[in-house]
Specification:
alpha+beta; 16 helices; 3-stranded antiparallel beta sheet; globular; 20 strands; about 15% strand
């Protein structure tokens, strides 16, 4: 017969009535005794670790404007504004060209009045179609769903470096996809402006208000470079025009980004350039001066001699354009840098390198072709309209019942023409049908522009008629030379962008920074960004599209089928084909 045991019989006597509770080895819980009733308050909330500058970095890159005399600050502000105006004037004609070119995008709906009421106003989509196709293709290649960052080990690989590279890659992909939600939107905006204008700028910096890195796309009309600059590294100065609302200014001043000066009244009068006003006209926007006043800040990266060293060193000076007040002056070089090299905060993306600092875009390459295609298309449509609804002359004495309303299809109108031959009283003008020669010319111009922009899709769609895979690969490679070169340039600029982000992480991360991803808790260490791991984009600069991957994988599969068994890993090869097909 079974007997019931007392569970406390096996407990040692010295323990008494104490029951041992299993505890976590490490816990972030805090305990506080309530003095009123003797109860214990347990707080299980975890301590949040943020990205903040250390005391050394905060002091070195702190605002120096408070250390200067007012007269010296006024001289610096005047120099900043005058150099900004000279840089702005040096490219005035360059901007006016784009103001005309934006009309070729065909984004504005309007009624035609010239050369007659109701004339065709359609714009040939050659330019905008090429830009949107480029944006779509580049976005898919440069920003996959898993993240755009890949880590590459410098030097000889070992287990420690591989773990470090894995941590850096996972954390930076987490940053640009989760911690910096604006990154993808700003990147896509940049990819739309880049093919049209030829140059686009991204800015990465540590935002003291949100305690994290921030990425911004800088429109071309808000970034000005000195005339003699060939790239950002050797430019004597460049200026970022920043628009800030009064609320944003108060937030920045509280965070210590700008000096607490007496601000002028914000406004919108004279703030925006002709370039911006042209874009607003196309998309139907206009600023509201009553409800949305703005401050115009000039953040100029330049060289100044402020520390009596006898040489000009890199600084960042921010000035209010309306009142010519200096908001901040900060060093722009590392504390331990013997060469005092300028730190980079901007990245210049070029579509095609031009004759100077700025790149060339589709407006330069396809602008005239788009104008010709638009003129031909409008002539064909207007000719068809006249052929379907012809006009002409009628005799003065001829009277038509119902006045001169147009005749609808299948309608017959009565005419008072006693003793008059209608064939002589009504003479239509000899309008011709749309010209077949003009139609062929329109097709030629459109095809020429599309071939220049991208003909890869046509090669892929016609691949079955080309014969062997090698022939198709040769045609595919030849057709994609233009985009492939652009893809490499963007890859290089994106690499520079990720390196700036890695430098921000090294400066502002704590020794250990925990972060959460789905189903896992991870940590990144400040020492992981010590330079032993290089940051590169995940995209392959030598393979600009999935079509290339598919063709290369199919070629490898054909070789595997024709080779002796065992020479190819068919499982890995088929996995590669599936990955190329997403």
């Amino acid at each position: 017969m079974a007997t019931e045991r007392n569970p406390y019989d096996m407990m040692p006597e010295e323990v008494g009535d104490v029951v041992a509770m299993p505890m976590e080895e490490e816990s972030n819980a805090t305990f506080e005794v309530d003095p009123e009733d003797g109860g214990v308050i347990v707080d299980f909330s975890e301590q949040v670790v943020g990205m903040e500058a250390s005391e050394d970095i905060a002091e070195w890159f702190g605002d120096m404007s408070e250390l200067l005399e007012e007269d010296e600050l006024n001289d610096i502000a005047n120099d900043v504004i005058e150099s900004y105006q000279s840089d702005k004037d040096s490219r005035a004609e360059w901007e006016s060209m784009f103001e005309s070119g934006f009309d070729l995008l065909g984004l504005k709906l309007e009624q035609g009045t010239e050369p007659f009421e109701g004339a065709c106003t359609a714009v040939h989509p050659l330019l905008i179609e090429s830009a949107v196709k480029f944006q779509s293709k580049a976005s898919g290649e440069l920003f996959p769903s898993s993240g755009p960052v890949k880590a590459q080990i410098l030097g000889k690989s070992n287990a420690e470096k591989e773990l470090q590279a894995n941590r850096v890659q996972n954390f930076m992909n987490y940053q640009v996809t989760e911690q910096m939600p604006e990154y993808f939107d700003e990147f896509e905006r940049m990819l739309f402006h880049l093919p049209i204008i030829g140059s686009a700028f991204k800015k990465l910096y540590y935002d003291a208000t949100t305690k994290r890195p921030r990425s911004e796309f800088i429109p071309i009309d808000q970034f000005y470079v000195s005339y003699y600059a060939t790239d950002l590294r050797n430019a004597d100065r460049y200026t970022h025009l920043i628009y800030r609302s009064p609320i944003d200014m108060e937030r920045d001043i509280r965070a210590g980004i700008y000096d607490d000066v007496e601000l002028p009244e914000p406004n919108t009068e004279g703030l925006f350039t002709d370039f911006t006003r042209k874009l607003d006209t196309i998309i139907g926007l206009s600023p509201s001066s009553d409800n949305d006043p703005q401050y115009a800040l000039l953040e100029q990266h330049c060289y100044l001699d402020l520390e009596d060293t006898g040489e000009s060193l890199p600084y960042i000076v921010t000035v209010i354009e309306q009142s010519r007040q200096v908001l901040s002056i900060r060093r722009n070089y590392e504390q331990n840098d013997q060469n005092k090299e300028k730190r980079s905060h901007f990245v210049h993306y070029r579509f095609v390198p031009g004759f100077g600092f700025y790149g060339l875009g589709l407006i330069h390459f396809l602008g005239n072709l788009t104008m010709s295609a638009t003129a031909a298309m409008r002539s064909l449509i207007d000719a068809g309209q006249f052929a379907n609804l012809p006009g002409g002359f009628k005799a003065k004495g001829l009277r038509m019942v119902g006045d001169n309303d147009p005749i609808s299809p299948g309608e017959f109108k009565e005419v008072e023409a006693t003793g008059m031959d209608l064939s002589k009283a009504i003479i239509p003008l000899p309008y011709k049908e749309p010209s077949s020669t003009l139609f062929q010319m329109l097709n030629f111009v459109s095809a020429a522009g599309q071939r220049f922009a991208d003909s890869t899709e046509q090669v892929v769609s016609d691949a079955a008629s080309y014969g062997p895979v090698g022939t198709t690969m040769a045609l595919l490679e030849a057709s994609s030379k233009f985009f492939s070169a652009i893809h490499k340039r963007i890859h290089k600029s994106q690499k520079d962008e990720f390196r700036i982000l890695a430098k921000i992480d090294y400066d502002y991360l704590p020794e250990e920074y925990p972060y959460d991803v789905p189903f896992e808790d991870r940590s990144i260490f400040k020492s992981d960004f010590d330079g032993r791991v290089d940051i590169i984009p995940v995209s392959d600069p030598n393979i600009p599209s999935n079509a290339h991957r598919m063709m290369m994988a199919n070629m490898a599969l054909q070789m595997a089928q024709q080779s002796p068994p065992g020479m190819f890993n068919l499982e890995a090869l088929n996995r590669t084909i599936l990955q190329a097909a997403n």
